[in-house]
Specification:
This protein is of the alpha+beta class. It contains 28 helices and 34 strands. The strands form eight sheets. Strands 8-9-14-13-12-15 form a six-stranded antiparallel beta barrel. It has a four-stranded parallel β-sheet with strand order 2-1-6-7, sandwiched between helices.
Length: 944
């Protein structure tokens, strides 16, 4: 369908996109006759809690927002913060002759377009306008060639949304009851959390193995140069024909793997003995094997490979990468950034090939354009790879971009151009060197080399690696030009000790790669999934590594034992297959949802499921039944983990702790766990150390005035002193009495605090005196340190001791000085990290009001849980700054005026409107109320 001739000649057209930035760019391309407005994301969704559900709905529908008894009809409400925007869109539509729904060309974008159509109810022609890049030509072509709304895509997206709601709203409450309130479960987030937890379990179970080998430095005896070095190193590979054990030969238990009988495991004593026996040996080249080397370019970026490379090369997290890419797309610099495709259009291929010739010469251009087959199963719709936009690529210098946007564009541009360049070619060489030790043993050393004779695409781009020690593709290792039989002398034989390392923790890049390889979830959602498990406290970062919290161990333990299939990797991947089949029209959504939620009905089995186009049904079990009977779940057992020496780790309501023995019995010990402790660092030795530290109540004596016992304790927020009130003292109600409590000064500790110290602390605030006007001045200790207070005027003190020592005269002198506005004198940095790759400014760690933070003088980013001043690396500092820049400046909150009270209006029954029944029937309403916090927590847990 194309715009009608009448409106094309002079009518008014309303174009709706998702974001204001996108609207601004597209509006500039379309010109007069078009009004481009943003929906600002989704305008309606399932309700966030029962309070948002219209009164006509009750029971399970009110709780879930989905009517599971009537074909899973969803109840949609207009988001409270979008009502004003919806009114604006309706007003603009009333003044328009045509409506173009120009949301993104993926399932989510199609669903947004459908919701807009349902809420706005246009009476003018409606067109679905799609494009994958925001350029003048692409936008005008999209206007001239619109299509119909793809209902199949809408139904597939709605099925996902309903599935995720059922999963989150049914499983999350189980976590609230059995682990901790306000937790969330999700179809993909729970599986992603399990992956991180399982990797940590492997690290905990890991036992390191020690192994030794030799490195020989050999000389050819002739002069050398860069192309023909005179010396080279080779590693011991075999002794008497037995291969020397390397790290790959050991299992996670620290022992040689089965089948390694012919492998020789050298210890330090034997390695040093062999080195001594080889000290005066003669060596010769035994073989030289040369093979041609060829490396082809990497495919253009899709969403996940962009996230991985931005993490490796730029230090961006997945979320920061997508935020920066979104800005580049909306401002017309790159094509759509959520794509599973590695395909380039003919226009893009021509643009890339033209730049290869222009920048590198015809020698680097292959005869035929390169094409790349997609590797992603069930790849989403007909998107292109992520590339520079337009039919001529702007070089990074031509864009005028700066900072993170420049760096990400440059990465995309290089990768795209390189994808149309020739292979890199060269030679790889393996040289074997042999010699006989003085004790008669035969030793063989091996050296590998690589030379690149034609760099090809590597002139433009070389892919990074997750392993910081991995060798990149463009690295050369030159060996001397030797032949079999050539004599060599050993300049040095060194002994090297090694230890196997536990499997590396996931980074954001490697977790994205793992999820994609397992075909779990949609690649376009991985950034938000990782963001969710970080925000929920299931995972925290140490450097770039993702570390699971002890809380996540308890959550995954419960899900594995009682909802095993819901976090099974194959089950989750097969669910994704089923959802994609629904999208292709090969399966029906309602029968599939029924089987997922209710399970196999009597008389219906795998055959019925298969007949309905929903697979064999073997992986679908009834969710409703799983969450109904929770009696078998022992909450204490779920959250308890053995450490050793009768010590157990428990995840409690206020955080993790360790204990030994039974509570309220003699010898019982308990200690809190540091918030940033990685689970694999909780060894038996460290647990014993924590238990040995002073904990519990330290009785300091009785208050001579009240007679109450004064005790010192170690609390979650640090050590403090308090009084023990007599039994029977009311603790609640209007007559409740609160015990006096005070935090210890930084100079105090539980070991040294005295009764006198405690009484002084609990006497605060101290009255210093009154000023000439009779206003009282007090000295007290607060969250941000010691200070004076006079009415509403507060002044900082330089030390805690001043609280008790400062005189009235000294206090008045402080108040006589003008109050310091803005920042105090700058404190020296706690640590210097180096030069930021974006701003070029030095990055330092500073101590701020809310704790330590990194800054380059322009951008500040607070250290996260798991980061410490001592351990933070430059790369982690740059990553935190990149994430902060990607978020943009914080929005300022503006106070809203309270609306004038109006006389209550008569209530009228709302007219009930029903939409035509789709594959998944839908109900819509614009009613929305504020949801309780607990239900909002559930709603957020209902996402992927």
């Amino acid at each position: 369908m194309s715009p009608t001739s009448e409106t094309a000649q002079g009518g008014r057209r309303l174009v709706i996109v998702e974001s204001p930035a996108k609207a601004k760019t597209i509006g500039g391309y379309l010109g007069p006759g078009y009004v481009v407005e943003a929906s600002v994301g989704h305008i309606r969704d399932l309700p966030n809690g029962a309070a948002e559900v219209p009164d006509e709905y009750t029971g399970e529908v009110r709780r879930l927002g989905v009517d599971v008894e009537h074909d899973f009809q969803p109840v949609y409400v207009v988001n409270a913060d979008k009502k004003a925007q919806v009114r604006k869109l309706k007003q603009l539509l009333a003044e328009s002759d045509e409506l173009f729904l120009a949301t993104d060309e993926d399932r989510e974008g199609e669903a947004i377009a459908w919701h807009l159509q349902e809420v706005l109810r246009p009476k003018v022609p409606v067109h679905r306008m799609v494009f994958h890049e925001i350029t003048k030509d692409a936008i005008r072509a999209a206007v001239a060639n619109p299509r119909e709304l793809n209902q199949r895509m809408v139904d597939a997206q709605e099925t996902r949304r309903i599935l995720d709601r059922l999963y989150g709203y049914e499983v999350s409450p189980v976590l609230w009851k059995k682990v901790m309130p306000k937790l969330s479960a999700g179809r993909v987030q729970s599986v992603a959390t399990r992956l991180v937890v399982e990797r940590e379990r492997e690290r905990i179970a890991f036992r390191s193995a020690e192994y030794w080998d030799l490195t020989g430095t050999f000389a050819t005896g002739r002069g050398g140069d860069a192309s023909d070095p005179s010396t080279f190193t080779a590693r011991l590979s075999a002794v008497d024909g037995r291969r020397i054990a390397q790290g790959r030969d050991f299992g996670p238990d620290g022992r040689l793997k089965s089948g390694s009988g012919q492998t020789l495991h050298l210890d330090e004593v034997n390695a040093r003995a062999l080195a001594a026996a080889l000290a005066d040996s003669a060596f010769a080249v035994r073989s030289v094997e040369s093979k041609p080397y060829r490396r082809s370019p990497y495919a253009p970026f899709r969403t996940t490979t962009l996230q991985q490379e931005a993490s490796r090369k730029l230090g961006f997290g997945a979320k920061a990468t997508m935020q920066v890419a979104q800005k580049l797309y909306e401002n017309g610099f790159i094509t759509y950034m959520r794509t599973d495709s590695t395909t380039l259009s003919d226009t893009a291929v021509a643009a890339a090939r033209a730049q290869v010739t222009q920048l590198y010469g015809a020698d680097y251009l292959p005869e035929k354009p390169r094409t790349y087959a997609g590797k992603v199963k069930n790849a989403q719709e007909a998107h292109e790879a992520i590339r520079p936009s337009g039919d001529r690529f702007r070089t990074p210098a031509e864009t005028g971009l700066t900072g993170d946007q420049f760096r990400l564009y440059e990465l995309i541009w290089k990768r795209t151009v390189a994808s149309q360049m020739k292979d890199a070619t060269g030679n790889s060489v393996t040289v074997k060197i042999g010699g006989r030790a003085s004790d008669g043993r035969d030793a063989e050393f091996s050296a590998s080399g690589k030379t690149i004779t034609f760099h090809g695409f590597m002139k433009a781009y070389v892919e990074g690696a997750d392993d910081p020690n991995a060798e990149l593709d463009d690295r050369e290792r030159r060996l001397p030009q030797v032949a079999e039989g050539d004599a060599l002398s050993a300049a040095e034989i060194s002994v090297d000790g090694h230890a196997t390392k536990p499997p590396a923790r996931y980074t954001e890049a490697s977790l994205v790669k793992e999820l994609e390889e397992r075909e779990i979830g949609r690649p376009s959602t991985y950034a938000s999934i990782i963001g969710t498990i970080l925000d929920r406290g299931y995972v925290f970062k140490k450097g770039t590594a993702l570390v699971p919290s002890f809380l996540s161990f308890a959550v995954v333990n419960l899900l594995e034992k009682h909802f095993g299939r819901l976090v099974d990797y194959d089950f989750t991947a097969r669910m994704e297959d089923d959802l994609d089949r629904i999208a292709r029209g090969e399966a029906q959504s309602v029968p599939w949802l029924k089987r997922f939620y209710f399970g196999t009905q009597e008389g219906a089995g795998a055959g019925a499921a298969s007949a309905a186009g929903n697979g064999d049904g073997d992986h679908l079990d009834g969710l409703k039944e799983l969450v109904t009977d929770l009696g078998a779940i022992d909450a204490r057992e779920i959250s308890s983990f053995p450490v050793g020496n009768d010590i157990k780790l428990r995840v409690g309501k206020y955080g993790p702790y360790i204990e030994r023995g039974e509570k309220d019995t003699e010898g019982y010990q308990k200690a809190d766990i540091p918030d940033d402790l990685a689970p694999d660092e909780l060894t038996v030795e460290y647990a014993e150390e924590l238990l040995a530290k002073p904990s519990g109540d330290f009785e300091l004596g009785a208050d001579p005035v009240s007679g109450n016992q004064i005790v010192a304790k170690h609390g979650r927020y640090g050590p403090y002193v308090t009084e023990v009130l007599p039994e029977g003292t009311p603790k609640t109600g209007k007559n409740a009495v609160k015990p006096r409590t005070a935090s210890l000064f930084k100079s105090m500790s539980l070991d040294t605090v005295t009764l006198a110290d405690a009484l002084k602390l609990m006497s605060l605030p101290r009255v210093v005196g009154v000023d000439a006007e009779g206003v009282e001045i007090t000295a007290q200790n607060g969250r941000y340190g010691p200070y004076l207070k006079k009415g509403t005027d507060s002044r900082s003190l330089t030390s805690e001791d001043q609280i008790f020592d400062i005189t009235l005269e000294e206090a008045l002198a402080i108040y006589a000085q003008p109050k310091q506005r803005g920042r105090a004198a700058a404190k020296p940095p706690l640590k210097e990290l180096g030069t930021d790759p974006v701003s070029g400014a030095p990055v330092v760690v500073k101590d701020g009001r809310f704790g330590p933070y990194v800054t380059d003088g322009e951008t500040n980013a607070t250290l996260r849980t798991g980061d410490s001043v001592e351990d933070i690396t430059p790369e982690r500092g740059y990553e935190l700054l990149a994430e902060k820049r990607a978020k943009g400046p914080a929005k300022k909150k503006t106070a809203k005026k309270a609306p004038a009270k109006k006389a209550p209006a008569k209530k009228t029954a709302a007219a009930k409107k029903t939409a035509a029944k789709k594959t998944v029937a839908k109900k819509a309403t614009a009613g929305a109320k504020k949801a309780p916090a607990a239900k909002k927590a559930a709603a957020s847990g209902a996402e992927d």
